[in-house]
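Quick question, first post here. What does this chain look like in 3D?
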Amino acid sequence: MRLRWIGYVFLQLLCSYLVTEENFIGLNTEKIVEQAMQRESIARPEIKLIGICVRTNNEQELDKMKGKIFPCVQKYFHGALFEKIPHRKRPGTTLCAYTDYETDCTGDYTYFIGEEVSSFGSPLPEGFQKLVIPSQQYVKFTTNRAPMPDVVINAWKAIWAMSSRELGGKRCYKTDFEVYDERAADHQNIVLDVYIGIEP
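> Answer (accepted):
Ran it through. Tokens below.
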């Protein structure tokens, strides 16, 4: 129960922070705060998720009245939707995925929040969607301990500022995702994994 409450708190902080123009990730890379991150090239098999999603873009998220990510996260945690997900593989571990990119970080994409499942079952609970993250090659970034929301904001700013050579491969813009697990229980000392899909 404590993990669920903490999860709501730090994701709420993240989303409220993202919608302020001066801190928005990806569009303000000149303000990158240096943050040493561990990195690893890793192949991961297919991942099945059940959760909820919205279609949005970074420009839209700049407008507090039009942004869709925060209301989506709020709905997920306020409604305790995670408790309704069947076949949960790691209860309490939240995945936030960015998928169905129209182009790259400048175009529309789908934001998906949910949990990994062993199978989808049939039918899905009302109001839920499924997402299959395909088997792909990733660069996995693991942050140092830092408070929320700085830990994730700085990670994304650093990643978005990297050239393909610096990143370790060309981004394929299929699906990228963040993992919030027990290392995020203390929102003042969070360790976060960010998986960036790259071309084989």
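The two ends are 40 Å apart (CA to CA).
The chain has one domain: 2-198.
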